[in-house]
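Listing S7. Sequence submitted for prediction.
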Amino acid sequence: MSYSLIIPAQEKNRYHEEGDFSPFGGTSLIEWKVSQCIETINKSDIYIASSSQKPIAICKKYGINFIKRQEAQSLETDLIDIAKQITTEYVLWANPTSPFIGGEEYKSALNVFFNSDKHDSLISTVEKREYMFFENKKNNFKNHSDGREILQPIYIATNGFYISSRKNILEGKGLIGKDPLFYNMDFFESLEIVNTKTYNLMNELIAQYFNKKLEPSLE
């Protein structure tokens, strides 16, 4: 099955005045994400989608593709416009604000999704077994003495990446379908830049990211 890996890039956002072009790991956040992707994803399948002209030079440098986004429109409309500019069956939307998810994880998620015939989309999640309340009522437990191991798990979308069909996007259904497949990440990979504090924290954790990649396999 064919797919396009889309990396959205904003020139300015809430966590840095330079947005996804902010300094990160000796380069920029957007180039960091591109470098992760080209390790395992074909360059011809990778796109940067941005309303800025800045990524054009980056795309030429790495031999990947550029999609022009329109400014000041809803994400749903934005997704439709982007989907019109590609021809593949599926879209993998990879946010640069999750800097510890690499190409190998994207490839693994694609394989899991393509081998599943029960789901219409995939979202990256983190699983937690915690005592949850909803509308001031116990949600997934009866007694606080219940061990966490017997609690029903809670799945939280990490906003790291999504997989959806181009057809669904063109129909205005967005990135999350009616029956999404949850692709669980470990804690480190689930980390996301959402504000200035988390941006600074991610920069501090870069060394741990490389240490994790170099850890010997236990298999």
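Caption to Listing S7: primary sequence and predicted structure tokens for the chain studied. Residues 3-214 form a domain with the Spore Coat Polysaccharide Biosynthesis Protein SpsA; Chain A fold (CATH 3.90.550.10). The chain has eight helices and eleven strands.
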